[in-house]
Amino acid sequence: MKKITLLGLALGLTFAVSAQDRILSHSDSQVPDNGSVACADNTGLGTTENNFWRSYTPAAFGETGTISLQGGEVAIAATDISGSALPVNVFVTAFTSDDTFPAGTLTEVATSTISAEEGLEVYEFDFDEPVNADSATEIILKLVILDGTATGYDVRIGQNEEGETAPTYISTDSSCGPLPITTFDDLGFPGNGILNLRVGDEIATMGVNDNLSDVVSIFPNPTTDVLNVSVPSNVTVKSSSLIDVLGKDTGLRLSNGTINTSGLARGVYILNITTDRGSLTEKIVKQ
User: What residues make up the domain containing 170?
Assistant: First the structure.
Protein backbone atom coordinates (compact mmCIF):
# COMPACT_ATOMS: atom_id res chain seq x y z
CA MET A 1 0.00 0.00 0.00
CA LYS A 2 1.31 3.42 -0.95
CA LYS A 3 0.06 6.85 0.10
CA ILE A 4 -0.24 9.47 -2.63
CA THR A 5 0.35 12.92 -1.22
CA LEU A 6 0.08 14.82 -4.52
CA LEU A 7 -2.24 13.68 -7.26
CA GLY A 8 -3.16 15.61 -10.40
CA LEU A 9 -6.48 15.66 -12.22
CA ALA A 10 -7.31 12.64 -14.34
CA LEU A 11 -7.63 13.31 -18.05
CA GLY A 12 -10.29 10.65 -18.38
CA LEU A 13 -12.15 8.02 -16.45
CA THR A 14 -9.71 5.31 -17.52
CA PHE A 15 -6.01 6.04 -17.10
CA ALA A 16 -2.82 4.01 -16.96
CA VAL A 17 -0.68 3.59 -13.85
CA SER A 18 1.88 1.24 -15.41
CA ALA A 19 2.53 -0.52 -18.67
CA GLN A 20 -0.07 -3.17 -17.84
CA ASP A 21 -2.42 -1.73 -15.19
CA ARG A 22 -5.35 0.65 -15.74
CA ILE A 23 -7.39 2.65 -13.25
CA LEU A 24 -11.17 2.62 -13.62
CA SER A 25 -12.82 5.58 -11.93
CA HIS A 26 -16.27 7.13 -11.56
CA SER A 27 -14.76 10.30 -10.03
CA ASP A 28 -14.57 13.44 -12.15
CA SER A 29 -11.53 14.49 -10.13
CA GLN A 30 -8.94 12.40 -8.33
CA VAL A 31 -8.18 15.20 -5.86
CA PRO A 32 -10.13 14.84 -2.58
CA ASP A 33 -11.56 18.04 -1.13
CA ASN A 34 -13.18 16.79 2.08
CA GLY A 35 -14.60 13.81 3.92
CA SER A 36 -18.04 12.47 3.12
CA VAL A 37 -21.15 12.29 5.25
CA ALA A 38 -20.91 9.27 7.58
CA CYS A 39 -22.62 7.78 10.61
CA ALA A 40 -21.02 9.21 13.75
CA ASP A 41 -21.52 9.48 17.50
CA ASN A 42 -23.65 12.49 18.45
CA THR A 43 -21.33 13.41 21.32
CA GLY A 44 -18.28 13.73 19.06
CA LEU A 45 -16.51 10.54 20.08
CA GLY A 46 -15.92 9.57 16.45
CA THR A 47 -17.46 7.81 13.49
CA THR A 48 -19.31 4.57 13.99
CA GLU A 49 -19.13 1.60 11.59
CA ASN A 50 -19.52 2.69 7.95
CA ASN A 51 -19.39 0.87 4.63
CA PHE A 52 -18.84 2.75 1.36
CA TRP A 53 -19.45 1.12 -2.01
CA ARG A 54 -18.76 1.57 -5.72
CA SER A 55 -19.57 -0.64 -8.69
CA TYR A 56 -17.54 -1.13 -11.89
CA THR A 57 -18.13 -3.09 -15.08
CA PRO A 58 -14.71 -3.08 -16.78
CA ALA A 59 -16.20 -3.57 -20.26
CA ALA A 60 -17.89 -0.17 -19.90
CA PHE A 61 -14.39 1.33 -19.67
CA GLY A 62 -13.18 -0.36 -22.84
CA GLU A 63 -11.75 -3.51 -21.26
CA THR A 64 -12.24 -6.73 -23.23
CA GLY A 65 -11.89 -10.44 -22.58
CA THR A 66 -10.36 -11.65 -19.33
CA ILE A 67 -8.66 -9.12 -17.07
CA SER A 68 -7.11 -9.26 -13.62
CA LEU A 69 -8.27 -7.37 -10.54
CA GLN A 70 -5.08 -5.90 -9.09
CA GLY A 71 -6.17 -3.33 -6.47
CA GLY A 72 -7.16 0.31 -6.60
CA GLU A 73 -7.09 3.73 -5.01
CA VAL A 74 -9.19 5.25 -2.25
CA ALA A 75 -9.36 8.66 -0.60
CA ILE A 76 -9.65 8.59 3.19
CA ALA A 77 -10.28 11.47 5.58
CA ALA A 78 -9.02 10.61 9.08
CA THR A 79 -9.07 12.68 12.28
CA ASP A 80 -7.48 11.50 15.52
CA ILE A 81 -9.89 12.81 18.18
CA SER A 82 -8.25 11.15 21.18
CA GLY A 83 -4.72 11.85 19.99
CA SER A 84 -3.67 8.20 20.08
CA ALA A 85 -6.14 6.37 17.82
CA LEU A 86 -4.37 6.60 14.46
CA PRO A 87 -3.16 5.02 12.28
CA VAL A 88 -6.07 2.59 11.96
CA ASN A 89 -6.71 -0.24 9.54
CA VAL A 90 -9.54 0.05 7.02
CA PHE A 91 -10.50 -2.68 4.60
CA VAL A 92 -11.36 -2.94 0.90
CA THR A 93 -13.16 -6.00 -0.46
CA ALA A 94 -14.04 -6.79 -4.08
CA PHE A 95 -17.18 -8.77 -4.86
CA THR A 96 -19.12 -10.14 -7.78
CA SER A 97 -22.92 -10.39 -7.69
CA ASP A 98 -25.59 -12.61 -9.22
CA ASP A 99 -27.68 -9.51 -9.99
CA THR A 100 -27.10 -5.86 -10.79
CA PHE A 101 -25.75 -4.04 -7.73
CA PRO A 102 -27.10 -3.20 -5.18
CA ALA A 103 -29.40 -6.18 -5.71
CA GLY A 104 -28.21 -9.77 -5.62
CA THR A 105 -26.02 -11.96 -3.46
CA LEU A 106 -22.39 -10.87 -3.20
CA THR A 107 -19.42 -13.24 -3.55
CA GLU A 108 -16.07 -12.10 -2.15
CA VAL A 109 -13.19 -12.39 -4.65
CA ALA A 110 -10.35 -10.19 -3.30
CA THR A 111 -9.34 -8.22 -0.19
CA SER A 112 -6.87 -5.56 0.94
CA THR A 113 -5.98 -3.74 4.17
CA ILE A 114 -4.97 -0.06 4.34
CA SER A 115 -3.36 1.76 7.26
CA ALA A 116 -5.06 5.18 7.39
CA GLU A 117 -3.13 8.08 8.89
CA GLU A 118 -4.16 11.56 10.04
CA GLY A 119 -5.36 13.85 7.24
CA LEU A 120 -7.05 13.64 3.86
CA GLU A 121 -5.03 11.35 1.60
CA VAL A 122 -5.34 9.09 -1.43
CA TYR A 123 -3.98 5.58 -0.87
CA GLU A 124 -2.99 3.01 -3.46
CA PHE A 125 -3.74 -0.56 -2.45
CA ASP A 126 -3.01 -4.03 -3.83
CA PHE A 127 -5.31 -6.97 -3.39
CA ASP A 128 -3.81 -9.76 -1.28
CA GLU A 129 -4.15 -12.06 -4.28
CA PRO A 130 -4.94 -10.69 -7.77
CA VAL A 131 -7.72 -12.62 -9.51
CA ASN A 132 -8.92 -12.95 -13.09
CA ALA A 133 -12.42 -11.84 -14.09
CA ASP A 134 -14.39 -11.45 -17.27
CA SER A 135 -14.48 -7.80 -18.32
CA ALA A 136 -18.27 -8.00 -18.62
CA THR A 137 -18.61 -8.95 -14.93
CA GLU A 138 -19.75 -6.26 -12.51
CA ILE A 139 -17.13 -5.75 -9.78
CA ILE A 140 -18.28 -4.20 -6.51
CA LEU A 141 -15.81 -2.48 -4.17
CA LYS A 142 -16.60 -2.10 -0.47
CA LEU A 143 -14.61 0.14 1.88
CA VAL A 144 -15.14 -0.97 5.49
CA ILE A 145 -14.41 1.47 8.33
CA LEU A 146 -14.91 0.03 11.80
CA ASP A 147 -16.45 1.80 14.79
CA GLY A 148 -14.05 4.43 16.12
CA THR A 149 -15.97 5.69 19.13
CA ALA A 150 -14.18 3.44 21.61
CA THR A 151 -10.70 4.65 20.64
CA GLY A 152 -11.63 8.11 19.38
CA TYR A 153 -11.19 8.47 15.63
CA ASP A 154 -13.26 9.93 12.83
CA VAL A 155 -12.57 8.13 9.54
CA ARG A 156 -14.64 8.34 6.35
CA ILE A 157 -14.23 8.16 2.59
CA GLY A 158 -12.76 11.24 0.92
CA GLN A 159 -14.71 12.92 -1.85
CA ASN A 160 -14.12 15.46 -4.58
CA GLU A 161 -16.26 18.49 -5.39
CA GLU A 162 -16.24 18.00 -9.18
CA GLY A 163 -18.79 15.19 -9.41
CA GLU A 164 -19.09 11.55 -10.40
CA THR A 165 -20.30 9.44 -13.32
CA ALA A 166 -21.99 6.79 -11.15
CA PRO A 167 -23.28 6.84 -7.56
CA THR A 168 -21.38 6.29 -4.34
CA TYR A 169 -23.26 4.06 -1.87
CA ILE A 170 -23.22 3.88 1.93
CA SER A 171 -24.52 1.29 4.40
CA THR A 172 -24.20 0.65 8.13
CA ASP A 173 -25.40 -1.54 10.96
CA SER A 174 -24.43 1.08 13.56
CA SER A 175 -26.57 3.07 15.98
CA CYS A 176 -27.50 5.66 13.33
CA GLY A 177 -28.89 2.84 11.18
CA PRO A 178 -29.36 0.14 10.29
CA LEU A 179 -29.08 1.58 6.80
CA PRO A 180 -29.23 -0.72 3.76
CA ILE A 181 -27.02 -0.04 0.74
CA THR A 182 -28.21 3.41 -0.34
CA THR A 183 -26.86 6.13 -2.63
CA PHE A 184 -25.79 9.43 -1.11
CA ASP A 185 -28.20 11.15 -3.49
CA ASP A 186 -31.11 9.22 -1.99
CA LEU A 187 -30.07 10.54 1.42
CA GLY A 188 -29.91 14.10 0.09
CA PHE A 189 -26.11 14.41 0.30
CA PRO A 190 -23.38 14.60 -2.37
CA GLY A 191 -21.47 11.37 -2.97
CA ASN A 192 -18.38 11.76 -5.14
CA GLY A 193 -16.40 9.27 -3.08
CA ILE A 194 -13.01 8.38 -4.56
CA LEU A 195 -12.81 4.59 -4.66
CA ASN A 196 -11.18 3.37 -7.87
CA LEU A 197 -10.55 -0.10 -9.28
CA ARG A 198 -7.17 -1.03 -10.77
CA VAL A 199 -7.16 -3.78 -13.41
CA GLY A 200 -4.45 -5.45 -15.43
CA ASP A 201 -3.97 -8.03 -18.12
CA GLU A 202 -5.07 -11.61 -17.54
CA ILE A 203 -2.84 -13.49 -15.10
CA ALA A 204 -1.46 -16.65 -16.66
CA THR A 205 -2.05 -19.89 -14.80
CA MET A 206 -0.29 -23.21 -15.31
CA GLY A 207 -2.35 -26.22 -16.30
CA VAL A 208 -1.65 -29.83 -15.40
CA ASN A 209 -0.18 -30.63 -18.82
CA ASP A 210 1.72 -27.35 -19.34
CA ASN A 211 5.50 -27.16 -19.50
CA LEU A 212 7.09 -24.56 -17.24
CA SER A 213 9.03 -23.06 -20.16
CA ASP A 214 5.76 -22.45 -22.03
CA VAL A 215 4.10 -20.40 -19.28
CA VAL A 216 7.04 -18.43 -17.80
CA SER A 217 7.91 -15.20 -19.66
CA ILE A 218 11.45 -13.77 -19.40
CA PHE A 219 11.98 -10.37 -21.01
CA PRO A 220 13.67 -8.40 -22.41
CA ASN A 221 16.37 -10.77 -23.56
CA PRO A 222 18.92 -9.37 -24.40
CA THR A 223 18.58 -7.14 -21.36
CA THR A 224 20.28 -3.98 -20.12
CA ASP A 225 19.08 -2.81 -16.70
CA VAL A 226 16.13 -4.95 -15.59
CA LEU A 227 15.15 -8.52 -16.44
CA ASN A 228 11.46 -9.31 -15.94
CA VAL A 229 10.31 -12.82 -15.05
CA SER A 230 6.55 -13.39 -15.23
CA VAL A 231 5.42 -16.57 -13.48
CA PRO A 232 1.81 -17.89 -13.43
CA SER A 233 -0.13 -17.07 -10.27
CA ASN A 234 -0.45 -20.73 -9.32
CA VAL A 235 3.32 -21.32 -9.49
CA THR A 236 5.56 -20.59 -6.48
CA VAL A 237 9.21 -19.68 -7.03
CA LYS A 238 11.40 -21.42 -4.45
CA SER A 239 14.81 -20.16 -5.55
CA SER A 240 16.66 -18.43 -8.36
CA SER A 241 20.23 -17.71 -9.41
CA LEU A 242 22.07 -16.02 -12.24
CA ILE A 243 25.38 -17.73 -13.18
CA ASP A 244 28.10 -16.43 -15.53
CA VAL A 245 29.72 -18.60 -18.23
CA LEU A 246 32.53 -19.55 -15.82
CA GLY A 247 30.01 -20.98 -13.36
CA LYS A 248 30.30 -18.13 -10.86
CA ASP A 249 27.13 -17.08 -9.07
CA THR A 250 26.51 -13.36 -9.60
CA GLY A 251 24.51 -13.19 -6.37
CA LEU A 252 21.54 -11.67 -8.16
CA ARG A 253 18.12 -13.07 -7.25
CA LEU A 254 14.58 -12.73 -8.51
CA SER A 255 12.64 -10.20 -6.38
CA ASN A 256 9.06 -9.14 -7.06
CA GLY A 257 9.27 -10.48 -10.58
CA THR A 258 12.49 -8.68 -11.59
CA ILE A 259 16.28 -9.02 -11.50
CA ASN A 260 18.40 -5.86 -11.52
CA THR A 261 21.07 -6.53 -14.15
CA SER A 262 22.40 -2.96 -14.42
CA GLY A 263 25.64 -3.80 -12.62
CA LEU A 264 26.52 -6.85 -14.71
CA ALA A 265 29.25 -6.87 -17.31
CA ARG A 266 28.20 -7.53 -20.87
CA GLY A 267 28.07 -11.19 -21.74
CA VAL A 268 26.11 -14.41 -21.47
CA TYR A 269 24.58 -15.69 -18.23
CA ILE A 270 22.47 -18.65 -17.19
CA LEU A 271 19.26 -18.04 -15.20
CA ASN A 272 18.15 -20.94 -13.00
CA ILE A 273 14.66 -20.88 -11.48
CA THR A 274 13.29 -23.57 -9.18
CA THR A 275 9.53 -23.67 -8.55
CA ASP A 276 6.98 -25.97 -6.96
CA ARG A 277 6.16 -27.11 -10.52
CA GLY A 278 9.69 -27.87 -11.68
CA SER A 279 12.87 -26.07 -12.74
CA LEU A 280 13.74 -23.81 -15.64
CA THR A 281 17.08 -22.82 -17.16
CA GLU A 282 17.37 -19.90 -19.60
CA LYS A 283 20.31 -18.25 -21.37
CA ILE A 284 20.38 -14.48 -20.72
CA VAL A 285 22.36 -11.98 -22.76
CA LYS A 286 23.44 -8.77 -21.01
CA GLN A 287 24.13 -5.88 -23.40
Answer: 2-201
Assigned domain for 24 exists: yes
Domain stops at, among 168, 201, 234: 201
Cβ atoms within 10 Å, residue 211: 12
Helix (H, G, I), strand (E, B) or coil at 116: strand
Q: What is the mean pLDDT of each run of 10 residues along the chain (287 residues)?
A: 39 48 96 94 88 98 95 97 94 97 96 97 94 95 95 96 96 84 94 96 72 88 94 88 94 94 95 91 95
**CB neighbourhood size of 142 (10 A):** 20
DSSP 176: T
How far CA 50 is from CA of 77, 117, 182, 221, 261, in Å, comes to 13, 17, 12, 50, 47
- Listed in sequence order, the residues at least 6 apart from 229 whose beta carbon sits closer than 8 Å to its beta carbon are 216, 217, 218, 240, 254, 257, 258, 259, 271, 273
207 occurs within a structural domain = no
Tell me, what DSSP letter sits at residue 150? T
